[in-house]
Design goal:
Elements (H helix, E strand, L loop, with lengths): L2 H13 L3 E4 L17 H13 L5 E5 L1 H4 L2 H14 L5 E8 L3 H14 L4 E4 L5 H8 L5 E7 L19 H12 L5 E5 L4 H10 L4 E4 L9 H8 L7 E5 L1 H4 L8 H22 L1
Parallel strand pairs: 1-2, 1-8, 2-3, 3-4, 4-5, 5-6, 6-7, 7-8
Helix pairs in contact: 2-4, 2-11, 5-6, 8-9, 9-11
The chain binds the ligand O=c1ccn([C@@H]2O[C@H](COP(=O)(O)O)[C@@H](O)[C@H]2O)c(=O)[nH]1.
């Protein structure tokens, strides 16, 4: 039993959706109709959540977009968290990890202070840097495994002695560290040729799959190859192509209608694969 995992799987199976809405709120890209508010980013996020809540299984806050704006960004992040529907998984895409005592502070920040259900972490510093996150048995810890960017070739796809690529070693280790149910990995949708193999090697891990939409990954492949044997256990993140629909919006209702229409389209494509 793991509260975060159970919540995500319950939502995935009842809604037949793996949709994780990426709240990558870039102040420069927030449509002009939100400018009149004292906190345009917060109102923008509220609108995105209203427009997608019937289709979403999770919301991912990429902390960089909030940290970049200092105290105001942190305030927007904190107030956005309150708006995330309780039946949806909240993910802090923070990509943290450091020596143990520092990681403990990161884990406390994301899991206790902000009460996120899950967080993304980087494996490079090894187990002692990740143990503080894995010690939370009711949360989900998503470890970067095979990321969606071209730079995954620089380290992740490099072969270790014996020929095993580094990302496969990460997968093996996370399967052990997260054996209690809180283990997850990030695998890019742009690497769908390797996705079936990765899923076979780690049947019990939760998958977070970014890279559909703006990065060109296939939605259908991400869903079909990413899910576990129960057709759950995976989330497909979509940020820019969902929250920044093309065009000018005369009012907030028009913006929400455009986002809602795209979320419905994504949901229906996912449902037909599931
Ligand atoms: O391998 C990775 C890991 C994380 N991300 C993050 O996911 C979203 C993707 O945004 P899009 O606009 O849908 O491309 C973003 O927050 C990334 O930082 C990733 O893309 N790839």
């Amino acid at each position: 039993m793991n509260a975060a995992r159970d919540k995500a799987n319950h939502r995935i199976s009842t809604l037949k959706s793996l949709l994780c809405v990426g709240l990558d709120a870039d102040r420069e890209k927030v449509p002009a109709v939100f400018s009149r508010f004292s906190s345009p980013v917060l109102e923008f996020n509220r609108s995105v959540i209203r427009a997608t809540r019937d289709y979403a299984a999770a919301y991912k806050i990429n902390t960089a977009f909030y940290e970049a704006r200092g105290i105001e960004g942190f305030r927007d992040m904190e107030e956005t968290l309150v708006e995330i529907p309780s039946e949806c998984l909240s993910i802090a895409d923070a990509k943290r990890a450091d020596i143990g005592n520092t990681s403990r502070m990161y884990a406390r920040a994301f899991f206790e202070h902000w009460e996120f259900d899950s967080v993304t972490v980087a494996p490079y510093m090894g187990y002692d840097s990740l143990e503080p996150f894995f010690s939370y048995s009711d949360k989900l810890v998503f470890v970067l495994c095979l990321t969606s960017n071209a730079g995954s070739r620089d380290f992740e796809e490099q072969q270790l002695e014996g020929g095993l690529p580094l990302y496969r070693r990460v997968l093996e280790r996370v399967s052990q560290w997260g054996a209690g149910g809180n283990g997850g990995v990030v695998v890019g949708a742009t690497k769908s040729a390797l996705l079936a193999d990765i899923r076979n090697a780690a049947p019990g891990l939760f998958f977070l799959i970014p890279g559909v939409g703006a990065q060109g990954g296939s939605l259908e492949e991400a869903v079909d190859l990413g899910v576990d044997a129960n057709r759950e256990g995976a989330l497909v993140n979509i940020s820019r192509s969902l929250i920044y629909p093309p065009g000018e919006f005369r009012d907030i209702a028009a913006y929400e209608a455009a986002v809602s229409m795209e979320a419905e389209r994504l949901h229906s494509a996912m449902r037909s694969v599931l």
